[in-house]
Each structure stands twice: as C-alpha cells, then as structure tokens.
Design brief:
Layout: H1 9-12, E1 15-19, H2 23-34, E2 38-42, E3 71-72, H3 77-85, E4 91-92, E5 97-100, E6 106-109, H4 113-120, H5 132-148, H6 158-164, H7 169-184, H8 194-210, E7 216-219, H9 223-238, E8 241-243, E9 248-254, E10 257-263, E11 268-270, E12 273-276, H10 293-302, E13 304-315, E14 325-328, E15 337-340, H11 341-345, E16 353-359, H12 370-384, E17 393-407, E18 426-428, H13 441-457
Parallel strand pairs: 1-2, 1-12, 2-8, 5-14, 12-18
Antiparallel strand pairs: 3-7, 4-7, 5-6, 9-10, 10-11, 13-16, 13-17, 14-15, 15-16
Helix pairs in contact: 2-9, 2-13, 5-8
Flavin-adenine dinucleotide binds near residues 25, 70, 277, 431 and 443.
Length: about 450
C-alpha cells in the first residue's frame, strides 16, 4: 500500500526567490540550493556577477576583469562560497606586495616576519629616519584605539583620527592613507574613523584566531571563472532556475508574510521566501510593502557612492614590475595600484602585456575621458617604471564605475540594516547590509550566509 500521507522531498522544498545575481545573490542561491530549497535567481542584466565580472574586450579578443579584486586573509564567508563552487584553490596569497617610488625604487611590504617587525618600528618605505619613532608610537596608539574603540570614533574622520594619534605625514603617505582607502574604499577626509578601526579589529582578531599574519591575496584566474562557472555547475546539479534580463519591481507581502515577487512586466512569481540581494542604490520600490521601508530608505541616503576607475592597459612590452601588485607612492587620484596579469595569471604575451590599474575614490578621474585617463596613467607609469619609457599602448580598456562601493561618513555607525526583516520569509543581503565588513566581497558573502540562516531558520 502506498503511503499517501508522506510528502516526497519535492513537496516539502520551499520556493525561494533570490533577487540579484552579484556575489551576495550567488552565494544565497548556492547555499539555499545546497540546503535543498527550490531556488529561482532573478538578475536584471544579461549575465551573472554584479560588480565582480569579467568583461569582453573584442579588440584584444580577451575577457579581462572589470577591476582588480583583492582578498584579505581574514575573509571567511567568501572562502566558504569558493569551497561551495569548487574554486578555493584559485586564490593565491604571496605574502607580500611592493611599494614603488617615482624613479623606480621599490621596497617589499609585508606584515609578517622581519618586514612586519620593521613596519611596527616605523621603518616604512618613504618614511625618513627622523619620523620613525613618532610613527612607531602613533601605530601603537592606533592599535590601542582599534582594540579599545573609544566612543567618539564615529564622530571623527579617519584623517582627524590620524592627526589625533600623531601619525606623521610621511607614514600616512607611505602606508596608512592607502590602507584606509583599501579597507573602506574612500578617502581619509571622508570616511568615519570607526569604519577602518572596526575592520582592523576584525582583521587582528582573525589573525590571532588563525595564528597567521594579515596578508592580501588575488585570484589567479578571471572573476567569471572564479565566481560564476562553478556556481552554474551547482545550479545545474540542484535544478536552480536562472532568469537573466529579469527585473524585480516589488516584493509582495500579505499578512506579514512574503507571497512573491512582482516583475517589471507585471508578472507575479509566487514564492515562500525571498532574499533581496540588490545593491543599496537599486532598491527602488522593492521593499515598499515592508513596515521598515522608510528606515531602510534613510540608510540608502546615508551611504554615499564612491567611484573606482580601473584600466586594462595592453602594452607592447614589459614595464618591469617586480611583484604581482605594486602600490605607487604619491600616485593618489591618478594611478595608485598596478597589477601584473602575466605574474598573476601566467598569461602569455602574444596579445601584448596586460597591466591592470586601479584608482579608488576616483572622484576627479571618473569625470575624465577614457583617452585622457590613459594618457595620464601612461605618463605616471613612465615616471615610476624606467622600462615603460618607450612603451606603447596597444589597447586601453577603461572601466569607470561611479557607484563601485559606498562611503560611511561620521555618524553612520550602526545604520546598515540587519538581514532579518519584520516580514516572515523575507531577508536582505548585499554588501550594504550589516556585516563585520564594509563594502567588500566578504561583506556580500557574510550577508548571504546570514540571510540564508534567517530563511532556513523560519522553515
Ligand atoms: C572595481 C571594483 C573593485 C573592487 N575591489 C574590491 C576588492 O579588492 N576587495 C573586495 O572585497 N571588494 C571589492 N569591491 C567591492 C565588491 O565587488 C562588492 O562589495 C561586492 O561584489 C558586492 O556584491 P553584491 O552582491 O552585494 O552587489 P552586486 O555585485 O552589485 O550585485 C547586485 C546584483 O543585483 C542586480 N539587480 C539590481 N537590481 C535588480 C532588480 N531590480 N532585479 C534583479 N536584479 C537586480 C544587479 O544587476 C547586480 O547584478 C570592488 C568593487 C568594484 C566595483
């Protein structure tokens, strides 16, 4: 006799919709699928990846990234995602980067071993002997503030914080202003001191917990291979439906519960649960039926967009980089970091040498034309790399992202909303929701892990 009261697994799986195919949405969809849910992923664009994508450059028959993405050794949820999609082995942590001065002088920087000890004692590239004792003292005060978190840190900018602890200008130019831009994506004069302080505390805790020094890593492949190809295999294995060129308009709520997602064309997709993983600036009317919509809108207004300009520069020769990634001392606003794709990806040079450049908080550069940006950056490269003196540009692929990341100004601590909402079956994800990190890939993945926990916890 058949047992008519027992549900087959297909009957008990809840229908979950994930809106947004960036890292937060991808990780949410992968983890919901792994947990046995029926998942549909909606993405507005024609392809997945959001802000972490490879972009075709037909002139070079190549698919470089939209911008260099680096990994902090303290990232956990991002590595969990890479484990899920089978690409964890495609991230390298060489343990060093190089700081380069105009004229070509270089110095390797590292937070471990002898180099780490030299850093602690203020012996940094570009810091004269007379500034080293003050640098060492200020760095000790900085660590104390990071660990103790004085109550007023969210009332001052990082610039005011550095002045307060007496960090010499040379140490800021050499290391600390760059660290703030690297961690928060924005200038020291804009970002709240609490943001880098929180991130440094998270990094220190991770380093102590895992007994490894803080280091920076990079993908050894393009971003699509790293993040998307493996996810698509997981989706195929678990029957996840992907709808691209599909714009979600409103999340439909009835009696305090999610009932589905209304698309731009008026179609209603019914569902038991929704994870909304769109960027903060794309919320539109998605959450309009949520009681806390006004509060979330206020958050949207408080997080201001920060531009990043990245360039994939194809040159006719090597410029003689000595490390995978080099930070140009004094290159602020024009050319701050250069990445050697030959060293990072093992590229052959048949189509030219590919160097990727990044400028964060590129408020002025983003207004320039691609031609002007290329000329400015080539002029800077020639100042720093003697071998670039006669280098010719084979092709330049300029990627301007006016809304690459967001800034948190003083007074904004704690305003980012939680993943849990007041509506049953609805969770938020995305780098702008509350996490231990700022606008990062790790923040996106941590938000996804928490959003998935909320949804599964309500099952
Ligand atoms: C150039 C650059 C360099 C960066 N460098 C680093 C770095 O070195 N290290 C680091 O950790 N982080 C870095 N970041 C930040 C990191 O990329 C982001 O924080 C992260 O990728 C954000 O992921 P997300 O899923 O929250 O948002 P997104 O990637 O923006 O994904 C959101 C998705 O939602 C889709 N969407 C929007 N509205 C709708 C709708 N109504 N319906 C359906 N779909 C919709 C969008 O099309 C998009 O695909 C960088 C970012 C940029 C741009």
């Amino acid at each position: 006799m058949s047992n008519s009261t027992t549900n087959s697994p297909a009957d008990v799986r809840r229908r979950c919709i994930v809106i947004g195919g960036g890292l937060a949405g991808l990780a949410s969809a992968v983890w919901l699928a792994e947990a046995g849910q029926r998942v549909t992923l909606l993405e507005r664009r024609g392809s997945l990846g959001g802000r972490t994508v490879a972009m075709p450059v037909s002139a070079m028959d190549d698919v470089p990234d939209n911008g260099q993405h680096v990994f902090a050794s303290g990232y956990e949820h991002l590595f969990r995602y890479l484990e899920s999609v089978g690409t964890r082995n495609l991230v390298a942590f060489p343990g060093h980067m190089t700081v380069r001065e105009p004229g070509g002088r270089t110095r390797r920087s590292s937070f471990s071993g002898i180099a780490g000890a030299r850093t602690a004692f203020g012996d940094l590239a570009g810091v004269p002997l007379r500034d080293r004792p003050a640098t060492a003292l200020a760095q000790a005060r900085l660590i104390k503030d990071v660990l103790r978190q004085p109550a007023d840190l969210d009332t001052i900018t990082a610039d005011e914080w550095f002045r307060r602890i007496g960090l010499p200008a040379s140490a800021r130019a050499s290391l600390w202003d760059g660290i703030v831009i690297g961690l928060t994506g924005d200038k020291t004069t804009i970002t709240s001191a609490k943001v880098p302080a929180d991130l440094l505390r998270t990094g220190l805790r991770q380093a102590i917990r895992h007994r490894t020094p803080i280091s920076i890593g990079y993908p050894t492949v393009d971003l699509d291979t790293l993040f998307i190809d493996g996810a698509e295999k997981v989706f195929a294995d678990h029957g996840v439906e992907i709808e691209t060129r599909c714009v979600a308009k409103t999340i439909e709520v009835a009696d305090g519960k999610v009932v589905g997602v209304r698309l731009n064309d008026g179609t209603l997709l019914e569902s038991d649960a929704v994870i909304c993983a769109v960027p903060v600036w794309s919320l539109g009317d998605l959450l309009v039926q949520l009681p806390e919509n006004d509060r979330i809108k206020a958050t949207v207004d408080a997080l201001t967009p920060v531009p990043i300009v990245s360039v994939n520069l194809y040159l006719d020769r090597s410029i003689g980089m000595t490390d995978w990634g080099e930070i140009l001392l004094g290159g602020e606003g024009v050319l701050e970091q250069v990445w050697d794709r030959q060293l990072m990806h093992g590229r052959d040079t048949e189509r030219g040498w590919l160097y990727s450049t990044t400028v964060s908080a590129a408020y002025e550069l983003v207004e320039q034309t691609p031609n002007d940006i290329t000329e400015l950056q080539m002029a800077t490269l020639r100042q720093y790399y003697p071998e670039a003196a006669d280098a010719q540009v084979v092709h330049s692929h300029v990627v301007k992202m006016p809304r690459a990341t967001f800034a948190q100004r003083p007074g904004t601590a704690g305003i980012r909303p939680d993943q849990r909402t007041s509506v049953t079956g609805l969770a938020l994800a995305g780098d702008w929701t509350r996490t231990d990190w700022t606008t990062t890939m790790e923040g996106a993945c941590q938000s996804a892990a928490r959003a998935v926990d909320v949804i599964l916890g309500q099952a």
